[in-house]
Amino acid sequence: MQQSVQPRVRGFICTTAHPTGCAANVQHQIDYVKSHASVTDGPKRVLIIGASTGYGLASRISAAFGCQAATIGVFYERPASGNRTASAGWYNTVALEKAATQEGLYAKSINGDAFSNEIKQQTIDLIKADWDGGIDLVIYSLASPRRIHPDTGEIYNSVLKTIGKPFTDKNIDVFTGQTGEITIEPASQEEINQTVAVMGGEDWGMWLDQLKAAGLLSNGVVTLAYDYVGPAITFPIYHQGTIGQAKADVRKMAKTLAKTLSDINGHAYISVNKAVVTQASSAIPVVPLYISLLFKVMKQQNRHEGCIEQIWRLFSDNLYNGSNIPVDEDGLIRMDDWEMTEDVQAQVANLWQKVNTENINSISDLAGYRHDFYALFGFDNDAIDYQTEVETEQNIPSIKL
Ligand code: NAD
Predict the structure, then answer these.
(1) Which is the most buried residue in 118, 234, 259, 316, by most CB within 10 A?
(2) Cβ(53) – ligand 1 distance below 6 Å
(3) Average pLDDT per run of 10 along the chain, which is 401 residues long?
(4) Model pTM above 0.85
(5) 274-306 burial by CB neighbour count: b if 16+ within 10 A, else e?
C-alpha cells in the first residue's frame, strides 16, 4: 500500500516504521563497515539470533559486509498488513538482504519465535540445505519480554525491577524532557525466576546443543552472547536487578558451553557492550537519562559509539584481530571499556547530581537520544520527505509470506 508514514509513539515504542528510513539506516551501517579495512581471517558462515535490530543487526552487517560471510538471521518481526506498516526490523532486513544480494553475499532470514523448537529446526534445515561447511560464529542477541518454553509450553514474562528493597532515583520522559523521580518496587522471587527464564542462558544453550547435535558447528566455532554492566547509578535497575540476574545466568551458560564445545575446539564468550539506544534499552526506567548524559560526555571526547561502531570494533579489534581475543579477569570481552573509564563515569555522575528539567537540554544529549530513538524506526532523517507516499508492503526476499 502506498502511504505517507509518520511516527506514532506509544509509551516507549513507535508503532510505525518508515521503509526508506530503515533502508537508509542499514545502508549507513554497511557504509561504515565497508569504509574500514576488512578483516582477513573473519568467519565464513554466521548465524545471528536476534538479527533484525540493535546489536544483532549490527553484528549481521559486520559479518556480511566486513567479513564477506554468508549470514542467516533469525528474528521475530511483523510484516505490513493493510495500512499498518511493517516493524522496523522487517524493513531493516528487506534492505539488508537486497544489499547482500547486490554484493553476491548469501543472506537468508527466518522470522518466528527463536525460543521455539520449530524455528530452531527450520534454521537447522536451512543450514543443512544451503551451507557446505559448518557455522563459524553464532551470535545470540535476543531481547524479549516473553518466552514460551519449548518443552513445557509454560509462558514466562520478564520484568525490569530491582531486587530486595524499593529503589528511587531520577528518571526522564524523553519526549517532553520532564525529569522527575521514579520508585521501582522490588521483584518477587517468582518474577526474578520468570525474568531469568526469558532473558537467561537456557535458550542460548538449547540453540548450541541442537546445532551441535545436527553436526553443523565447524571446528573452532565461536559463540557470543551480549551483556551489559553499566555504572553504580543503574545497578539497582540493571546489574543488580532482575535483568542482572538473567545476565548472570547467561554468564553461567557461557561456562557450560565452553565445556560442550571443547571437543570441537569451540569457544563461548560474553561481550559486555556499551549502552546504546535500542528498542530494548528504551524500555528500561532510569537508563534513558543515564544514556543522555553518557552520550554528552562521550561525544565531547570523540568516543561516541552506536551499535555499528561498537560491533565493528568487537569484530576487528577483538574477535578477528589475528591474535588472542582479549578478555578481562572474569573472561569477559569488555566493549564497554570506553564507557566505563573513570573519567567518563566521574563526569556522568557529576551531571547526574545536577540534571533537572531546566538544564536537561544543555547538560545532556537528550536531543541525540531522541534522534536515535526516532531513527530506530526510520524517522528523523533530513534526507527523507515524510509527506511523500511510500510502498509499505515490502517483502523480505528470502521469506515466503
Ligand atoms: P533489540 O530490541 O534492538 O533487538 C532484539 C532482537 O531480538 C530483534 O532482532 C528481535 O526481532 C529479536 N527477538 C525478540 N524476541 C524474539 C523471539 N521470540 N524470537 C526471535 N527473535 C526475537 O535489542 P538490543 O538492545 O540490540 O539487545 C540485544 C542484546 O544486546 C541483548 O542481550 C541486550 O541485553 C544486549 N545489550 C544491549 C545494550 C543496549 O544498550 N541496548 C547494551 C549492552 C548489551
Answers:
(1) 234
(2) yes
(3) 96 95 98 90 97 98 97 98 97 98 98 98 98 97 98 97 95 93 96 98 98 98 98 95 98 98 98 96 92 98 98 97 95 98 98 96 97 98 98 96 79
(4) yes
(5) bbbbbbbbbebbbbbbbbbbbbbbbeeeeebbb
